[in-house]
Amino acid sequence: MRVSRYLVLLFIALIISLFASTQMQKAKELLNKGTIYSAKKALEIYKTEYIKSLLKNEDSYRIEVLRGLIKASKRLKKPYGQYKKELYSLIAQNKTSGKKSYKKPKVQKNRLKKVILRKGYVEFYFDFPITSKDISFKRLKIKGTYKNIYDIKGRLGFSKKIYRLKSVKQLKIAQYNPDTIRIVFENSKPIFTKKVLKGSKLEIYLDKKLVKNSNPQPKIYTPIFSPYKKIVVIDPGHGGKDSGAVGYKRKKEKDVVLAIAKRVYTILKQKGYKVYLTRKGDYFVSLRNRTKFANRVKANLFISIHANAAPTKRKRLSMKGIETFFLSPTRSERAKRVAALENRVDMKNLSYFSKSVYLDFLNREKTILSNKLAIDIQRNILSNIKRKFSVVDGGVRPGPFWVLVGAQMPAVLIETGYITNPTEAMRLSNPYYQKLLAEGVAKGIESFFIHNK
Predict the structure, then answer these.
(1) At 236, is the secondary structure helix, strand, or coil?
(2) What is d(CA 279, CA 283) in angstroms, rounded to the nearest whole number?
(3) Distance separating alpha carbons of residues 334 and 398, to the nearest angstrom
(4) CATH superfamily of 231-451
(5) Domain boundaries, the chain
(6) What would the pLDDT profile of 360-399 be if each residue is shown by its tens digit?
(7) How confident is the model at residue 345 (pLDDT cuts 50, 70, 90)?
(8) pLDDT tens, position by position, 108-124
(9) Please, what CATH class does the domain formed by 2-97 belong to?
(10) Residue 259, exposed/middle/buried by CB under 10 A (0-12, 13-18, 19+)?
(11) How far apart (Å, rounded) are the C-alpha atoms in residues 380 and 443?
């Protein structure tokens, strides 16, 4: 058992390293061609790999990439001093620590241990809790044989098995590919099954009455939009040692936004969405780990909730309003100021080059969808709140927000108001106002899904 687990880990690590080495090899070959066009292509590959090395915190790989960046920049007669400076800094740092910084990816195992046939259903026992997102289902009809197929992320803890059942012709369990277990119910008539998840146990029920009835299923009419299988990650900004902005009457941004985020979480849950919070209490979560979590749960949307602050005491009365931002390089001084306030904890250790590369080369294909999401959320928040309160529309803006970097899905950051403004600070602490805000966010999310299927 231990040997097989080690081999799986080794296999996955090998695939990741082979993909990275393939990209690096491609960049080297392009540089060797000696043309300006191929050098530009190589530079693009190196920049993309540099971003990946930063996200995964792989210093040894970043050193290799930086060397490629320097070589490509020299070929194109572009400045490379910043790359060189960072390269020397990393080499010196690694020599001092004396430790390898290249981290092997952690692999979670989801092994099917045993199968028990019960009256009317089958039990499958795993060594790791499974959720609906780990399972995909489909029905097939091939040459008079009906099949209900369940594909589950994981590995078999035993060899392929075939069972004869009273309800159906047979049940097959096999390893479909290195990461997927396939469970197949076969019968000469249509099969109707239902899955029930109980932690690390999966139960699949067979409806005998429906199995015996060869009549086709009645048509099911689905609504225009269903939240089923839609995954949303709500990110309450700051937390723990990072209090965020401290405003009127010493109200802290981290407390206000957590209360609002929890309300959004509850509303979306009631609507049928799969919802996660990046933090549920007063503790610190680094900015890059927030989007890493969203990527890990394969979220459809990432919503970060914050409260704004005036830059000076003189402006605390005049600055107010709700704004929604999406990730994009910007020349707006206002957006840069707001981003600097939200980014200050995690970005202080990054070089100027690291920051600019992220903003220029990451998440580019999601910018348009993020912009649409920001528009829907901003419009619905304002319409919901304006029924009871007078509020300033700060608009939808592009901004270089570090917390949105790395998200592989449409992502926005909502500034729910100015915590330094006495009126807005008191509203943001008011449960009724928080409810109106949360309802607006939820309506905006639903509007986005309806118009962007």
Answers:
(1) strand
(2) 7
(3) 10
(4) Zn-dependent exopeptidases (3.40.630.40)
(5) 2-97, 111-212, 231-451
(6) 444 455 788 999 999 999 999 999 999 999 999 999 988 7
(7) low
(8) 457 888 899 988 899 99
(9) mainly alpha
(10) middle
(11) 6
